[in-house]
């Protein structure tokens, strides 16, 4: 049984920014090569153009994902749960939560929290063989967060399947 405190704030694990730095360095190096080679009469090769587009899009998407993670906050209090991440700002009262679904993956599970007019999703690490290792994605206390939401919303488990995951709804 999970005991609710007056107000709890949770933030996801923030991983290394090494992949973001690498993507931007590769974008910059490809751009320099494109500028140097683009000075001739032949123009840019299709491969170089493709690499420049690929590295640029990758760098932007990785940076965007890191920005979203750094701006994510999940707050639970006696009234309900509030989730915001820079893109979404969702507040759901406990009695308005209609279901929670969990879809397990290899390293993390996706947890969806639903009400009649709002929803949000968060990730929690999957605990295999008793330890979490070096997983730097999702909410470290994700299992506790999910248990509190299920308990405070008065939900019960409706189904469990290896294909579907876990599904909790009102009695």
Q: What is the overall shape?
A: elongated
Strands ordered across the widest β-sheet: 7-6-5-9-8
Query: What distance separates the N and C termini?
Result: 18 Å
Do you know the CATH architecture of the largest domain?
Answer: Roll
Under CATH, the topology of the largest domain is which? PH-domain like
CATH class of the largest domain: Mainly Beta
Mean pLDDT: 86
Total number of distinct structural domains: 2
* Succession of helices and strands: EHHEEEEEEHEE
Please indicate the percent range of residues in DSSP E strands (runs of 2 or more).
Answer: 25-35%
Radius of gyration, taken over Cα atoms and rounded to an integer in Å:
21 Å
| Biggest sheet statistics | 5 strands, antiparallel
Structure description:
It is a single chain. The chain is α+β, with helices and mostly antiparallel strands and 171 residues long. It has 2 domains: 18-69; 74-170, PH-domain like (Roll). Helices cover 33% and strands 32% of the residues. It has a 5-stranded antiparallel sheet, covered by helices on one side. Strands 1-2-3-4 form a 4-stranded antiparallel sheet, covered by helices on one side. Strand 5 (97-104) and strand 6 (108-115) form a beta hairpin. The longest helix is centred in the middle third of the chain and has 25 residues, at 46-70. The two termini are 18 Å apart. The model has no long low-confidence stretch (mean pLDDT 86).
């Amino acid at each position: 049984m999970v005991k609710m405190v007056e107000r709890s704030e949770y933030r996801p694990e923030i991983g290394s920014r090494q992949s973001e730095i690498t993507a931007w360095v590769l974008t910059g190096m490809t751009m320099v090569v494109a500028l140097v080679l683009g000075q001739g009469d032949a123009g840019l090769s299709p491969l170089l153009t493709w690499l420049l587009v690929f590295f640029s899009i990758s760098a932007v998407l990785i940076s965007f994902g890191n920005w979203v993670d750094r701006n994510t906050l999940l707050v639970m209090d006696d009234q309900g749960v509030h989730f915001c991440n820079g893109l979404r700002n969702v507040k759901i009262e406990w009695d308005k939560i209609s279901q929670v679904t969990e879809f397990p993956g290899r390293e993390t599970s996706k947890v969806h929290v639903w009400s009649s007019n709002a929803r949000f999703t968060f990730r929690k690490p999957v605990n295999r063989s008793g330890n979490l290792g070096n997983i730097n994605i999702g909410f470290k206390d994700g299992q506790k967060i999910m248990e509190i939401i299920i308990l405070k919303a008065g939900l019960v488990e409706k189904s469990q399947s290896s294909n579907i995951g876990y599904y909790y709804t009102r009695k």
